[in-house]
Amino acid sequence: MNLTTQTTFQPSHDETTGRSKVSDNSLTATKSFCVQRFSGEIDMQTAPDFAAALDRVLTQGPECVVLDLSGVGFVGASGLSILARFASDAAAQHMPVAVVCRRSVARPIEACQLDEMVSLHTSVDEAGSALAGHRLAS
User: Fold this and answer.
1) Is 78:44 a contact under the CB 8 Å cutoff?
2) Is the pLDDT of residue 70 over 90?
3) What residue intervals traverse the membrane (predicted)?
């Protein structure tokens, strides 16, 4: 099965007014956050696409990232390895990462202890709220 991706960068600062802008998810930030959506399966065949999408996110440098894997039915070992590298690279940039996923995807993430590097959530709104709280505490 193919992997499809969609990236949305949402600035939280209005350049024209100089004021903070509230996003669709009612988050405010000094920079921006990214919602990267995936659907399909993440396996050996689609791992290069998964890695490329995550690399694009890192190069944009958002303040925080929500990886929406709610449309993903399977994550194989190659996908978990790429997710671990991404989480490590994001942590090095002080970029918190939240993952939205179903239980079938959360289980292998937890089994690999990647939930110590990323927070797991059941909805984008929940993940966004958690990241907003992280920004306030930082």
Assistant:
1) yes
2) yes
3) none
Q: What are phi and psi of 20, to 5 degrees?
A: -65, 145
Q: What is the DSSP string of the chain?
A: --EEEEEEEEE-B-TTT-SB---TT----SSEEEEEEEEEEESTTTHHHHHHHHHHHHHH--SEEEEEEEEEEEE-HHHHHHHHHHHHHHHHTT--EEEE--HHHHHHHHHTTGGGTSEEESSHHHHHHHHHHHHHH-
Query: Which CATH code fits 32-137?
Result: 3.30.750.24
Tokens of 125: 């709104």
Query: Are 122 and 100 within 8 A, CB to CB?
Result: yes
Residue 43 CA: distances (Å) to CA of 79, 81, 120, 128: 6, 11, 20, 27
Q: How confident is the model at residue 28 (pLDDT cuts 50, 70, 90)?
A: very low
